[in-house]
Amino acid sequence: MSVTSATSGAIIFSGATLLVALFATASIYSQLTSMWRELDAEIHNFKSLTNDIWADMVRLGAGTPANRQRRQSYGGYGATGVQEPPKDNYLNNEK
């Protein structure tokens, strides 16, 4: 085997390796951009869904001071109000 044929073989092998590496890089980049677009679409769908749900909640008046009962009015969590007796107490139903 002469030096010329060994050099030619090394150049061909390194060129083929370089082409495979470039193809692999392009393929990985393509897959990443595809996944990125898919993720963006999912985030957009989720955002529109949550915005619709929020609009429904606002339309129903959820969380407005008009329909909110304060803790003090029912005595929950150690509040100072008068606590209502339990409505479905199984001990009071026994005879």
UniProtKB/TrEMBL annotation:
It comes from Diploscapter pachys. The keyword Lyase does not apply. Keywords: Disulfide bond, Membrane, Repeat, Transmembrane, Transmembrane helix. Residues 65-95 are annotated as: Disordered. This is Nematode cuticle collagen N-terminal domain-containing protein. The chain crosses the membrane at residues 6-29. It comes from the Eukaryota. Residues 5-57 form the Nematode cuticle collagen N-terminal domain. One of its GO terms (molecular function) is structural constituent of cuticle. Collagen polypeptide chains are complexed within the cuticle by disulfide bonds and other types of covalent cross-links.
